[in-house]
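Tokens as discussed.
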């Protein structure tokens, strides 16, 4: 019967002698510590603790290989390390009770060996109660009693979460074991380990992995994949990169004779993993960062000092000079509403991650109560929503490369500011489940209106009335945003009108804006208390709403012209004019002013006042000819609204308007 049950035991010692276990690279100190534990009289059951991928299994397999060699003490050479074949036992058992009984019978073989067998446990649910594996509850009772009676020797492997959550709470078991906390290897150690194991991938794929690719894999994963541990993440990158090369060879993109995994394949793989475009991972990243100010100024107008401060921080982070255990950058933006604070945050997300939506925006006016802290890091165990985690921690855990914007931070509860001390100083937060979330690949931006109307030299003094010094000292910089000047507003108006033009082009409308209409927008924004935010509302109320009404009334259709001009009579209102075609090809102007349609009796008056009243009549039976006006060159004069209205055959193409990238 014992022989039949022995087939459920995996003999790791025999595997080591056959050369089937992973060769241990480095970890000499940890290996020596395990040997000391095994040779002890009491507490000779080592527990290797560490996060996934850190090398726990490799260390234990290295220990087993050493025990099977002639270099080990004779006492250890006589022992056999065995494990449980759980999958086979589950297949053979007809019920949970039969499975539990079978496990106990197999473990009795180990007990009967009189310490000649050492049980290797990869699942601590066979020793302590773990909620995730309730089917091992009965076997755990049996093995625990055997361990307490010193009838069995064990080598145990577990991750940090289960060790803290389940094993440490069982004081009886902790009195029989000795823990070894395995730390993540350094970059140099990881390169050494990865270099030693690359042969497995070379043999599997039939490729060559040079030493420079190994180093690049470790450097890239160390820089971009901080939520996982060495050496597993570097080995995974090599595996994925070799697979990518095989795919390219199959597609004919790469010559099959050039079977070398270059660092470029590692860069492409990192781009797939993180969502960061490959051109932002390689050497071109340096060129982009060198001209970061120019790129950010295309969207953020008039805040050159703020742009430079942020660009400097990004270059420090990419050059490796900044503390690697902190976020890429942490800034407090001070300024009144509508001066570009949020726009700079969006521009940063687009610049760093090529995705404007890589921005987590948290409005701190929603976190003014003490209980709101749970919304950020998750509610405590046993309360509703515990499994979903926190809004902040879960978002960054799932998408570690993003900009985190805390809007109006002065409104947050004091407990949230205390929580952010750890985030800003160490680049990490621990959620309610005990999971440590890495913030070192994020950009932290906090905005505030505190002291926004004061001179720059008085703002810091006002900030100390709202924030503690230890909070302000953890920020990379406090950035002041000043009020925008009229010339800045003109550039911003161009940017926003260009966005409107592109949206209109998508539905087939050609919008023409004259300079006086642009000046009207500038004047309205300049006199507004809401800054640039008022511009979006103006465009919506004065242009988008009237156009939407005309489209719904089918009084304007795709391919027709739309003109924006200031009402020549009042000079205070913006007019939206659209040329339509009635029966017999008779042209008329439909005018919308002040956000509502103009009545029929007023249409004629506006048409008579416009310069199109003298438009020559066309032959009703003749086909309409359209002349395309090319984009004006630097030597050409800009086409005005009056020029267009004077010639009904002219259609100004959207390309003639200033492009956003040129602003």
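Sequence:
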């Amino acid at each position: 019967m014992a022989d039949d049950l022995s087939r459920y035991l995996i003999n790791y010692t025999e595997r080591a002698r056959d050369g089937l276990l992973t060769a241990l690279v480095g970890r000499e100190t940890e290996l020596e510590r395990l040997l000391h534990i095994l040779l002890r009289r009491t507490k000779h059951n080592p527990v290797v603790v560490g996060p996934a991928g850190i090398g726990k299994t490799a260390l234990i397999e290295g220990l087993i290989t050493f025990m099977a060699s002639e270099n080990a003490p004779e006492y250890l050479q006589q022992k056999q390390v065995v494990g449980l074949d759980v999958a086979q036992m589950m297949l053979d058992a007809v019920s949970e009770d039969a499975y539990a009984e079978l496990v106990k019978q197999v473990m009795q073989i180990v007990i009967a060996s009189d310490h000649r067998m050492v049980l290797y446990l990869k699942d601590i649910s066979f020793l302590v109660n773990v909620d995730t594996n309730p089917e091992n509850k009965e076997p755990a009772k049996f093995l625990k009693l055997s361990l307490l009676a010193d009838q069995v020797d064990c080598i145990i492997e577990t991750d940090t979460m289960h060790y803290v959550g389940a094993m440490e709470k069982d004081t009886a078991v902790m009195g029989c074991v000795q823990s070894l906390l395995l730390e993540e290897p350094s970059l140099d150690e990881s390169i050494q380990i990865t270099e030693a194991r690359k042969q497995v991938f070379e043999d599997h794929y039939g490729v060559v992995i040079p030493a420079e690719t190994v180093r690049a894999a470790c450097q890239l994963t160390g820089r971009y994949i901080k939520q996982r541990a060495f050496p597993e993440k570097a080995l995974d990158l090599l595996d994925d990169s070799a697979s990518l090369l095989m795919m390219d060879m199959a597609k004919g993109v790469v010559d099959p004779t050039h079977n070398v995994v270059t660092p470029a394949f590692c860069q492409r793989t990192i781009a797939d993993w993180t969502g960061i475009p490959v051109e932002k991972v390689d050497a071109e990243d340096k060129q982009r960062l060198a001209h970061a100010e120019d790129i950010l100024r295309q969207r953020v107008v008039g805040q050159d000092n703020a742009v430079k401060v942020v660009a400097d921080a990004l270059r420090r982070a990419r050059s490796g000079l900044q503390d690697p255990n902190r976020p890429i950058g942490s800034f407090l933006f001070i300024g009144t509403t509508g001066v570009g604070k949020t726009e700079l945050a969006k521009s940063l997300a687009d610049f760093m991650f090529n995705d404007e939506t890589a921005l987590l925006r948290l409005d701190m006016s929603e976190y003014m109560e003490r209980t709101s802290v749970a919304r950020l890091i998750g509610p405590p165990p046993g309360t509703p929503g515990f499994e979903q985690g926190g809004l902040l921690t879960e978002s960054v855990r799932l998408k570690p490369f993003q900009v985190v914007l805390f809007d109006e931070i002065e409104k947050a509860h004091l407990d949230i500011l205390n929580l952010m001390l750890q985030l800003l100083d160490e680049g990490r937060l621990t959620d309610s489940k005990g999971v440590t979330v890495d913030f070192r690949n994020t950009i932290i931006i906090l905005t505030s209106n505190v002291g926004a109307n004061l001179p720059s030299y008085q703002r810091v003094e006002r900030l100390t009335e709202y924030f503690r010094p230890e909070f302000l000292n953890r920020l990379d910089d406090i950035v002041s945003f000043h009020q925008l000047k009229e010339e800045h507003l003109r550039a911003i108006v161009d940017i926003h009108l260009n966005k409107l033009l592109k949206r209109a082009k998508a539905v087939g409308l050609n919008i023409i804006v004259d300079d006086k209409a642009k000046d009207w927008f500038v004047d309205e924004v300049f006199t507004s208390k809401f800054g640039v935010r008022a511009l979006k509302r103006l465009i919506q109320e004065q242009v988008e709403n009237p156009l939407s009404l005309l489209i719904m009334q089918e009084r304007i259709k795709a391919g027709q012209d739309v003109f924006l001009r200031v009402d020549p009579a009042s000079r205070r209102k913006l007019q939206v004019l659209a040329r339509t075609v009635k029966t017999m090809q008779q042209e008329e102007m439909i005018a919308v002013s002040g956000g509502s349609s103009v009545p029929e009796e007023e249409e004629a008056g506006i048409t008579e006042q416009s310069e199109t009243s003298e438009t020559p009549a066309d032959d009703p039976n003749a086909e309409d000819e359209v002349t395309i006006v090319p984009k004006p060159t630097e030597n050409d004069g800009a086409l005005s609204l009056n020029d267009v209205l004077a010639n009904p055959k002219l259609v100004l193409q959207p390309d003639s308007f200033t492009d956003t990238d040129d602003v």
